[in-house]
């Protein structure tokens, strides 16, 4: 590389550093936005945890008093759900911590990890309930229908309240993973209420395990959908709501942009999407205007952490392959 070429290269790097600083500021604004979402999710998850764990104690006491294995089993299920809510609440709290030199993106990804653990935990619970349901079909168990129906009705009201609490907060992967468990409890309460009524009126105890299998199938389908989204985020894939091709067209359509290359889009957390790209511009003098327009267009798509590098349309050659008889600083061989 010749002296003039080296100076041009240094100037180009300095230009990128200045714009990189501006983009970092934009990214921190997005991170503060994510902090507000995590702060909103934490208290909701904590209240959901306290309500669920409290009713699990009530259900366990009613199960011992009535001799109902169905209620005892559902109480155990709610205890496991309380553990998942505790994990989600801890992840929401940890996600509020600011970035460090070792974790420059912050701890938002921990919510994705918590969602993964909750989904896997839910799959284990579904398998366990399915096995128990099959056993009860083969070996029916006596159930006090009146007690089951009464406690199930109370549990249904509680689960509706907890689900409403979580659904009206920020919908991160973490809260959706916790909500998955709560909806499992809600559907379980519906199944227990229906089975209790059936047992009261007909004495057919097989209704309970059959309804449990139906609920398990529905919950497994929801779990697998969330698992696919979580794995996509952990693999740094493009979020399902975005298209790389469409984003590239949006950037290329901005006045002053000649072309786009090295475009990367990935998920930082449930509420933060990152993008980096090289924009070939007609003139570096247009870059401030192009940068502002690019940020505005990307923000409209929900992309808040943006790193863009400008390249002039007629960029000077900064490196040439060594050819026979050619030396650094010499004219380019014909």
Kindly summarize this structure in a few lines.
By secondary structure, the chain is mostly helical. The protein is built from 8 helices and 3 strands.
Q: Can you characterise this structure?
A:
The chain is mainly α. It folds into two domains: 3-23 and 240-312, Alpha-Beta Plaits (2-Layer Sandwich), CATH 3.30.70.1350; 34-234, Alpha-lytic protease prodomain-like. It is 67% helix and 9% strand. The protein has helices at 3-66, 69-94, 109-138, 145-167, 173-202, 207-234, 244-252, 287-300; strands at 257-269, 272-281, 305-312. The chain has a three-stranded mixed beta sheet with strand order 1-2-3. Helix 1 (3-66) packs antiparallel against helix 4 (145-167), helix 3 packs parallel to helix 5 (173-202) and helix 4 (145-167) packs antiparallel against helix 5. The radius of gyration is 28 Å and the shape is elongated.
* CATH structural fold name of the largest domain: Alpha-lytic protease prodomain-like
User: How many individual β-strands?
Assistant: 3
Q: CATH superfamily assignment of the largest domain?
A: Cation efflux protein transmembrane domain
Average pLDDT works out at 74
CATH top level class name of the largest domain: Mainly Alpha
What does the oligomeric state look like here?
single chain
| Molecular shape | elongated
């Amino acid at each position: 590389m010749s002296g003039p070429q080296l100076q041009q290269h240094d100037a180009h790097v300095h230009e990128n550093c200045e714009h990189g600083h501006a983009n970092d500021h934009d990214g921190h604004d997005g991170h503060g936005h994510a902090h507000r979402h995590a702060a909103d999710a934490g208290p909701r998850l904590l209240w959901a945890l306290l309500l669920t764990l409290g009713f699990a104690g009530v259900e366990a006491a009613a199960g011992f008093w009535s001799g109902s294995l169905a209620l005892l089993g559902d109480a155990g299920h709610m205890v496991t759900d309380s553990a998942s809510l505790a994990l989600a609440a801890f992840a929401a709290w940890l996600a509020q911590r600011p970035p460090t030199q070792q974790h420059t993106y912050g701890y938002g990804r921990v919510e994705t990890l918590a969602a993964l653990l909750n989904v896997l935990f839910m799959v284990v619970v579904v398998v366990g309930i399915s096995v128990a349901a099959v056993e009860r079909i083969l070996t029916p168990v006596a159930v006090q229908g009146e007690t089951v129906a009464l406690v199930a009705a109370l549990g249904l009201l509680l689960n509706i309240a907890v689900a409403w609490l979580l659904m009206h907060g920020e919908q991160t992967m973490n809260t959706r993973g916790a909500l998955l468990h709560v909806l499992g409890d809600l559907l379980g309460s519906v199944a227990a209420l229906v089975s209790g009524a059936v047992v009261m009126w007909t004495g057919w105890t097989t209704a309970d395990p059959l309804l449990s299998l139906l609920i398990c199938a529905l919950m497994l389908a929801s779990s697998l959908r969330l698992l696919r989204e979580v794995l996509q985020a952990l693999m740094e894939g493009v979020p399902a709501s975005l298209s790389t091709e469409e984003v590239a067209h949006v950037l290329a359509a901005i006045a002053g942009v000649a072309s786009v290359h090295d475009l990367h889009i990935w998920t930082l957390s449930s509420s933060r999407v990152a993008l980096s790209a090289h924009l070939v511009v007609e003139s570096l003098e247009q870059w401030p205007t192009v940068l502002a327009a690019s940020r505005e267009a990307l923000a409209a798509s929900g992309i808040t952490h943006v790193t863009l590098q400008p390249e002039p349309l007629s960029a000077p050659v900064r490196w040439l392959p060594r050819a026979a008889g050619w030396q650094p600083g010499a004219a380019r061989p014909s």
